[in-house]
Backbone:
């Protein structure tokens, strides 16, 4: 499936998706309330078959928090980057994709631990690297650590 065909397919499934131009990979910025539906369709539709989530990252954009999903079809040899964002810096929350790609479980725990993003319906959302009593989120731009004199 070409990138243009993939864009058409995605636009037929959900509304409000943006496709930035001049990117190395096909990129889709998805409304957060449509992410889970789109991810399910991308994985479970035979003509797309995105069966492999190879990277999930959290990003602090300053005024927004986002999640970036790199997925590919190992059988059809195409890939896409999905992005979701929220303006809610106090309580950033997205739906989990663990039920779609099992490997997301650990990625989402890492993002929760280091950026404070909560994932609705995650099966085991708890800290992965930092102790339970750690305060703050080290990958946030506003993070300060007075003891180690770290500011972002």
Residues:
């Amino acid at each position: 499936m070409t990138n243009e065909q993939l864009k058409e397919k995605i636009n037929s499934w959900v509304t409000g998706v943006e496709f930035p131009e001049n990117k190395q990979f096909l990129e889709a910025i998805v409304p957060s309330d449509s992410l889970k539906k789109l991810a399910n369709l991308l994985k479970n539709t035979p003509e797309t078959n995105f069966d492999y989530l190879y990277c999930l990252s959290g990003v602090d954009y300053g005024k927004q928090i986002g999640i970036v999903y790199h997925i590919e079809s190992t059988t059809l040899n195409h890939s896409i980057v999905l992005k979701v964002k929220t303006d809610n810096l106090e309580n950033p929350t997205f739906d989990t994709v663990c039920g779609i790609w099992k490997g997301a479980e650990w990625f989402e725990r890492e993002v929760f631990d280091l950026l404070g993003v909560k994932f609705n319906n995650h099966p085991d959302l708890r800290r992965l690297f930092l102790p339970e009593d750690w305060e703050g989120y080290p990958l946030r731009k506003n993070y300060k650590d007075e003891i180690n004199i770290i500011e972002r």
In short: Residues 3-151 form a domain with the Beta Polymerase; domain 2 fold (CATH 3.30.460.80). The chain has a mean pLDDT of 94. Residues 117 and 150 are 21 Å apart (CA to CA). The chain has one domain: 3-151.
